[in-house]
Amino acid sequence: MRLHRLEVAAFGPYRHREVVDFDALGADGLFLLHGDTGAGKTTLLDAVAFALFGSVPGARGEVKRLRCDLAGADEPTEVVLELTVQGQRMRLVRSPEYQRPKRRGDGTTSQPAKASLTWLGGTPAGQPTEGLIRIDEVGRTVERLLGMNAAQFFQVVLLPQGEFARFLRADTAERERLLEKLFGTKRFADVEAWFRDLRTERRRRLDQRRQEVRSLLDRFAQAAREEVPEEEVTSWIAGTRERAGKAVEAAKAEHAQAFSARETAEKILEDRRVAAERVQRVRAARRRLADLAAQEGERERLAEEVAAARRAATVTGVAAQAARSAELLRNARAEEEARVGELAATGYPATGSDIAELRRYAGKLREEAGALAGLVTEAERQRHDEREIVRLAEAVEEARATAEVLSEKLAGIPEQARDLRERLDAAAEAEVVLEASRQRHAELTAAARDAAGLPAAERRVTEATGKAQAATEEHLRAREHRLRIRELRLEGMAAELATGLRDGSPCPVCGSGEHPAPADPSDGSVDPEQERAAEEAERRAEHRREVAEATKHEAQTALTALRERLRGRSRDEVDAELEELTTRLTELTGLARQKASLEARLRATEAEAAGLAEQRESAGQAATAAETRRAALADQVAERARRLDDARGEHADVGARREHLARVVRALDALAEARVATESARERSEHHEAVVREALGQAGFATVGEMHAAVRDERTVAELDRRLAEAAAAEAAASETLAEPELAGVSPDEEVDVEAAAAAAGLARERAEAAVAALREAGSRAEDLDSLAKRVEAANTALRPFEEAFAELDALTDVVNGRGQNARRMSLRSYVLAARLEEVAVAATARLRAMSQGRYSFVHSDAAGSHGTRGGLGLDVLDDYSGTIRPAKTLSGGESFLASLALALGLADVVAGETGGALLDTLFVDEGFGTLDAETLDVVMNILDELRAGGRVVCLVSHVEELRQRIPTRLRVRKSRTGSTLEVVA
């Protein structure tokens, strides 16, 4: 990174625009920024930091007062920085958020923060040619190009007041975060995570395979109906299979004997059942013949009843027709009486009129009603025209009233148009400032979410820290337990070896075939299974500790990011600022949203004025036309009314008279039809009565009542026929049964013992069925055991390579992640960072020894931390005067300045070497020289001269008088009541 030009306006103590040309000042590689205390030297460094990151270092960044107190209301606060990073030249322009007086009315309003990035000399690939204007996009782009965030930049490139020794005295975690960002070791962290994920996945697969073996053994034990032994599983499986085979052979022998006995018992049962069935048939046939002989009289009566019902069926049809004809005659006479009453109600008595007379009078009245049809149409037209006259009168009044209303509206339109123009101007002004307010509102909304989530993030860190501590303690207890178990097993190893000794076999320790005094197990002896259980418990505890530490690290990282985004603001401050801006944004949005509608309303108002004038003229013309039409229509209505009065007679109107005539005609026609129907019904009834008398005589019945008494429905007749036929068939069947040859000589009194034979056959069947089930069960169990034994053997064979491969991967993963056989507890990432820090220590030592005249050197330590924590990033100081290694915190103020400056320069050298020398070309040192004596100051200046010779630009910020004599190029800050100014002194 190399700076070219800096401009500040209304920033800090600088009221007017001040320009710093770094290219001219840094031509010699070294220049001094000096001035009175409080003049604004550090403010220039703050301006560089603000242009890059939108924040300033140290406690000044917490106050958030960057605007010059002397600046006028129309003087904007702005910082412009031109620089080159990674070969890309750019211009950064930033303005902080500040309060300014309102342009209208009293009070102040918030001026939102702004940022822009413009590419100079070519746009990088993937970037918009017009540059960037979003604050978050500008910040991300600058941080990506620099490879550092604001805090890291302040520690490595810009060394402000109070921040000299922060990296020197940082703890391992903080130092690790900075080095990771600078040296890009994320790929090594990814390797560690890859190993952990791979181990987790392989462990899951191994557990699945082990579970498969356990499941197969459980299924084998379930099939064998035994428990899986703790040891000698293979021998147990072979013995179980052998026992299952013997059980199958025994079941086969029992199966053959049971089936032979069942066949004999079933043959005896069948013979006895046949004999018993013949005796039963003879008994049933003789009982049936006796019952039928007793029912002979009833059967004759049923036959007579069936014959009478069939004769009555020939008469029921004509009798029903005669009854229906009589009913129709009664209905026709009642209908005729009703029609006579209807005609009398019309005023025409027709009691003695015949059918012809009724039809002649109806024709006469029909012709009279037809003549009135045209007048009915005219009556309807008359009513329509009368309503039209009323409507035209109302239209005349409405048109005249409309003309008056339009005149009143036209009088108020000019004032309305002036009001709309004023509101339109205010909406246009709101639209201009709305976008900047929205951008600021989005930033404050995000900050409010961060502030709201801060307590929860702090709780998560606290909870994660407690869980990590508990998991670590649990892991330590599990490790101690495992070591104790191993120690106990080693103590009892002699007894364990003695359990495997056999007479005549050699001792695995001494080789002797005689074992006169083998060791006995003690009460506290431990077997291998207990040791494996302790090791497994330790691995589980270690895994829980790793998970808890990862969770803690994630929670701390999230909390740090949250606090950096909040930049020290509290939730109340953010909420108050957001509430004020939200209110203002609502006002602006409401005004801006009205612009289009106000423009449309203004155009509509102007168009309305022209339209209202045209409508008023149209309303006057409509009133005149309606009045003319009303007068003409009134004359036509009076003429038509005279004709209709003559035609209606004594009725209310012509339509009522025509309706009355139509009602009389309908009554006459209905009465004539009713008399015709009555005559026809009488003739049909007389004919059907004669037919019924003749049918009764032919069927042998004297009266219709006698005939109805003999009537039976078809179902009853069919049921009687069936009963008679069944009795005859049963008699014939019983006779045929007794005549069968096989029943000859069978006595109905004979007794056959079937139950005893059935009981014996049932017992034989049960024995055979039990034998079949036993044989099937034994065979199925033997097959299942053979199949499962083969699967267990195959699963064990396939499991062994997986266990060996996982053991190797597990050990390697522990080493890569700083555990297991890794004695220094250093992960791969820590190992790489330790190597980089060692390079930094070597580079910084060269300068520190020169500055301290050979007394101090940096010492890098890769030892593990206390309580088993990770190591590798320790940094202490070797004091050659005493020969002891001292913590950096024990150095004096001047010594701390020298050490931190040497460390910053060494860090810059290593980072520059990593990035090809294109990153840290500019270094700022703010104060600290006043703590050095004259001799040490000479040494430091020589070191800075070496930096200048290497192509860097070093800016010293100090008010030490001696530096003014040593450095010819100086930038002086002058302080005054009207604001500080800059002056270049060559």
UniProtKB/TrEMBL annotation:
> Does the keyword Coiled coil feature in the UniProt annotation?
yes
Where in the numbering of this chain does the Rad50/SbcC-type AAA domain appear? 5-187
Bias type Basic and acidic residues, positions: 97-106, 529-555
Q: Which InterPro entries match?
A: P-loop_NTPase, Rad50/SbcC_AAA
Region feature (Disordered):
94-121, 455-475, 500-555
**Keywords of this entry:** Coiled coil
UniProt cross-references to Pfam families, sorted A to Z: AAA_23 (PF13476), SbcC_Walker_B (PF13558)
Which parts of the chain are coiled coil? 292-339
Q: Which domain of life is it from?
A: Bacteria
Asked whether the UniProt record includes Transcription among its keywords, one would answer: no
Could you describe the subunit structure of this protein? Heterodimer of SbcC and SbcD.
- Report the sequence similarity comment from the record: Belongs to the SMC family. SbcC subfamily.
Protein's recorded name? Nuclease SbcCD subunit C
Q: Which organism is it from?
A: Amycolatopsis pigmentata
